[in-house]
């Protein structure tokens, strides 16, 4: 009887999911409610978790509840701590949730909401969740080793080296593009700039408070920091309206770029407790609260989506970034569907906290589903905007024209009506001078979020506060990634150079800290400067480059996973990791080919360089643009060559194992019986 | 074993579900915000909470924490 009820329940869930997916896919000529996206997502995740992840856990990974995890075997109260599964779930989700699932779907909405939504759902259930789950489990079975160490042990030296190069590349490009998004959100915005500038002294104060006044009271300190940030947002309004104070916080994009580079350098060289740690706590506090608030706002308002399911830009002529829906939608949205970066978290802190092997399913697969849900909410936030407004905010001046009249004429000619007066009143409502050409996705997301929030709480009167709250939330988020990433990159460079000259590898030696910090800031700062000076807004070049790097890291992770599945004698189930791997190889290699060799100058780096060579009078500025295009082409080429190497090494290994030429032996830690076995029930 | 320790160890204390959910949420936040790690540090080193103890804790976990990338 109970089983029959369960079957009925799952049939109902499947039918509701199918109905929701059919509604969002087939209603082409009329607007739909955002709840259809929520329903499609919830049903897809439920089916994916209940059936697919269970299949992967039982057949592919053969999770063993009797096997002691490293958290149990090495329990030292420090790194290795057996922890309640829900606590690990929350910890893991807080670690994987970054700005990517918010920005990517907003940019991909230029194709309409349909391609992005389908990729987020299918990509997560069959790709991203699987990747996070299997890498977490494989790390748990290898004493919590990192992806690079697992790649070196299971595939070979090339695998380890490629993983290292992919990680450092993705960090550099991510930091460059992240900083560019912050610059585009804050340029000519005294309110936003003041609020973000104030988070630095607030972080110092928090660092002092929790070190000297209330040692270890981080939650209390974060709540205090949050109150101060809200006061800064409120004060920012006064600053923006004050004719004396406003110019102090009104900066051009190049000035902001230099300020962010100085900030990144200082954050990397300063003691962690003073700036990095308190900012990290503050960012996490705001992040968890805002994501919950956005979910509640969407459910409470149930907004209508004004963006069509598909726009004319699926043909590759999009103003935000150029390129066809395949492959560019699939590299634009990474973190909400599948993100290589997650494999670093899944083989970082989390495997050292897992209490029982069977809990990796909920933590690895489940947390990624939650991250994917955040991406669906970002798609909704972008799609509640009128399409004309969305394109006016996100399109660079180089595409739509430098004046408001030129921009509205161009966008209206595309079939998305928008007026200069309408954009002006929207800018006034959110407390900005203008919303034209605010590329990068963050301002569009903030406007969408402010609409949802202001309709839930406070009405139009507080729309400006909500907009700047959203901008603060995104910028704080990105700057936390930036300062932590700069420090991580610095350590990686120190580790690598330490093999050549030992003193530089000493992480406490100040000359080494200053020199390697300058190297990592110089690397991402170059990409930031390139984006700031790019007449097409920078996002057109840099976001696809970031997407390619991120998805290539996922390719490395799935190569490692597939190799282990083959070596473990479970080749009949290899499709579980091989299918997303093949898809990612197709997507990233096609996208890379287009970005390097496409004859359309808006897509291909080399074609754009050639166009500049042919059309422009020689000058320093043009020479630099040409150099940047060629550099981007070389970076893309190096990434592809690296991943081709690891793919070849993996395929040769699979063939050797399957043909019996090589002994199939996975390098797991020895089996130890868990002491938690008596708790099974 | 105290209720808090039982929760960390994955056992259920004898409370109602609202109370259990609230304490689980609190534990989750304590773990995310490193308060649990500080408590474990104090237990491990036999110290009581003080500015010096917190400075030692930060020093202890600084390298591990600073090497942890934040996700995109």
Helical residue percent of chain B? 55-70%
CATH fold name of chain A: Amino acid/polyamine transporter I
What fraction of residues of chain B sit in β-strands?
A: under 5%
Structural class of chain B: mainly alpha
Beta fraction of the residues of chain A? under 5%
Most extensive interface: pair and counts? Answer: A-B, 67 and 43 residues
Which ranges of chain A are low-confidence, i.e. pLDDT below 50, for 5 or more consecutive residues? none
Q: What is the terminal-to-terminal distance of chain B?
A: 39 Å
Q: Total number of helical segments of chain B? A: 4
- Total count of domains of chain A: 1
Look at the structure and give the mean pLDDT of chain B: 79
Number of strands of chain B: 0
Give the H and E element order of chain A.
HHHHHHHHHHHHHHHHHHHHHHHHHH
Order of helices and strands of chain B: HHHH
User: How would you sum up the global shape of chain A?
Assistant: globular
Concise overview:
Chain A contains 26 helices and no strands. Chain A is an all-alpha fold and 681 residues long.
Please characterize this protein's 3D structure.
The complex is a heterodimer of chains A (681) and B (72). By secondary structure, chain A is mainly alpha-helical. Chain A has a single domain, classed as Up-down Bundle (Amino acid/polyamine transporter I). Chain A contains 26 helices and no strands. Chain B has 72 residues and is mostly helical. The longest helix of chain B is centred in the middle third of the chain and has 16 residues. The relative contact order of chain B is 0.09. The interface between A and B is large, with 67 and 43 residues.
Q: Secondary-structure blueprint of this entry?
A:
The complex is a heterodimer of chains A (681) and B (72).
Chain A: H1 2-26, H2 35-60, H3 70-73, H4 85-96, H5 100-108, H6 113-140, H7 147-154, H8 157-186, H9 190-213, H10 218-241, H11 253-269, H12 276-301, H13 325-332, H14 341-346, H15 360-383, H16 387-394, H17 397-400, H18 404-413, H19 420-429, H20 442-456, H21 463-498, H22 510-533, H23 539-567, H24 575-597, H25 605-615, H26 620-658
Helix pairs in contact in A: 1-2, 2-6, 2-15, 4-15, 5-15, 6-15, 6-23, 6-24, 7-8, 7-23, 8-11, 8-21, 8-22, 8-23, 8-26, 9-10, 9-12, 9-21, 10-12, 10-21, 11-21, 11-22, 12-20, 12-21, 13-23, 13-24, 15-20, 20-21, 21-22, 23-24, 23-26, 24-26, 25-26
Chain B: H1 3-8, H2 17-32, H3 35-45, H4 51-66
